[in-house]
Amino acid sequence: MTEAAADERIVIGRITGCHGIKGWVKVHSYTEPQENFLAYSGWMVQRRGGLQAVEFDAGRRQGKGLVAHIKGVDDRNQAELFQGLEVSVEGGQLPALEEGDYYWRQLQGMQVWCGPEDEQVLLGTVDYLIETGANDVLVVKACEGSYDQRERLVPWLPGSTVTRVDKQAGRIEVDWFLDE
């Protein structure tokens, strides 16, 4: 696995609804902190016909989320056409991470192994992650060759539950128990 390629599109949020009557939309940002959504450029939305460029010319935090104005969209009826669309940017805009930090998308699809080094067992692959507040959680789904067909929720606690991550091998090793 490598860092995001410059031409790879990364979804950074979703337009969830309209705000007011002047073309503003509500945005659920996937960035941390959520205001970082507005710092990017080259936004695109995915429509059935393909990608469409959009420009957010204003935005702010509103309650627990963000609201933003799409340039050229000046009434609620036009804004409704964007409801439910995901917003992406070029992957090359994402900041480089420090050693030991990962974007969630880098962990998705990695195999999860547990047990002593000479007796490791495949639990499955990371399907997605959940943010719980206390810590993130890997949702590990069974795959071909896995120990059993169970889905497991494994806390993302590097140095504790997560003992090793090998991006090159697509492998995460965890200190976890097998339910009998």
From TrEMBL:
Q: Which residues form the Ribosome maturation factor RimM PRC barrel domain?
A: 104-176
Any one Gene Ontology cellular component term annotated for this protein? ribosome
The GO terms describing molecular function are: ribosome binding
Location in the cell: Cytoplasm
Q: Which residues form the signal peptide?
A: none
| Protein function | An accessory protein needed during the final step in the assembly of 30S ribosomal subunit, possibly for assembly of the head region. Essential for efficient processing of 16S rRNA. May be needed both before and after RbfA during the maturation of 16S rRNA. It has affinity for free ribosomal 30S subunits but not for 70S ribosomes.
Family per record: Belongs to the RimM family.
Q: What is this protein called?
A: Ribosome maturation factor RimM
**What gene codes for this chain?**
rimM
